[in-house]
Amino acid sequence: MLRVGLAQIDVTVGIRELNYKKVSEWMERYCAPSPLPTAIVLPEIWDVGYALEEGENIADPSGIEAQGFLGTLARQYGVWFVGGSVLARSGSGNVNRAQVINPSGKLVAEYDKVHLIPLMDEDKYLKPGQKLGVFQIDDIQAGCVICYDIRFCEWLRLYALAGAKVLFVSAEWPQIRIEHWKTLLKARAIENMIYIVACNRVGTSKDTLFGGASMVIDPWGEVLYEGGSGEEGVFLEIDPEKVQAIRDHLQVFRMRCPKLYSGLVK
To answer: Which residue is catalytic, options 31, 144, 147, 199?
Structure first.
């Protein structure tokens, strides 16, 4: 069993200290002890929001500052953090980087967003990632993606083929397309027979209203939780062993015909 938490919060654009304070207050309010391994998901770019044009001045070098902040909270509460993502400086450019931090406060995995959305100018200011974000929470194989990634079914299928039973999603998804968010998340859960644990931000910045509706969806596509449009927090227990039972029953992966899918590679 795994306990998952969704920190559906607003994000103050460009002011890291206020967002740190927001996350600390959320933890104090919602995070009660549990004997189960617990993984908490934050929204996309929770540290500074979409201040991409200011990245030269405010990007976190290699995400070290955010790693230290979340590491302290992870040790204090005995939890994992899986995302959200932060605006990190990496080499010669900036990236939208999810961090996975264990209860000892150690960074155990990173994922740089692969699919950069032009509508938010990510392609102008960020470098795309080049690899899957897979890791283990105790003995549970898991993965993480970021927002626009969920529109790319081929990418998320690779996580399932890598053995992931839980896929964590961090997002800043706008209210105007929130029905797309809900439909895509359900589809990705059903087609991959995987748990989806997705955290979206709320609030408004730069004239964009973000839609919340954070979700936990089981491998049959059943919505176990759907958030509202305001700040909130929730913890649920999920059973990753259910994933293998469903995959064995439906045998979708065994029935795949990869040779016939070669046209996808162009």
So the answer is: 147
